[in-house]
Amino acid sequence: MPQAKTEALIQRYYDAFNAGDTQALLACLAENVRHDVNQGKSRVGRKLFAEFCAHMARCYRERLSDIVIMASRDGQRAAAEFTVHGEYLSTDEGLPPAKGQKYELPAGTFFELADGRITRVTTYYNLADWTAQVVG
Fold it and tell me: What is the CATH classification number for the domain harbouring 61?
């Protein structure tokens, strides 16, 4: 996949995320996508990714800004850096109680791609920073 097509696919992924369009987001993913969650276990498959999206929509309202996408020349790997603007809506297991707290933090995601789809999504952010914002 050419570098420009990879960057366009990642942009579609984030456009769908910001629009709250889970179906469009899932359409960017391979059926056997591996999803590595920050501070969590890896999940494999579009179905588990969809379940994760539903969980996130219950607990959080997030919008991403300042998205910068970078892709390898062969288009098989990409990365994105962005700012998360969120609201903590419902208490997530093992985390502080939710009371509608707002938060803003930098984050990044690494991607692998094959056959025109995303095959791996690995997201990182500073959980201690997030926790300090929602507790403080």
Answer: 3.10.450.50
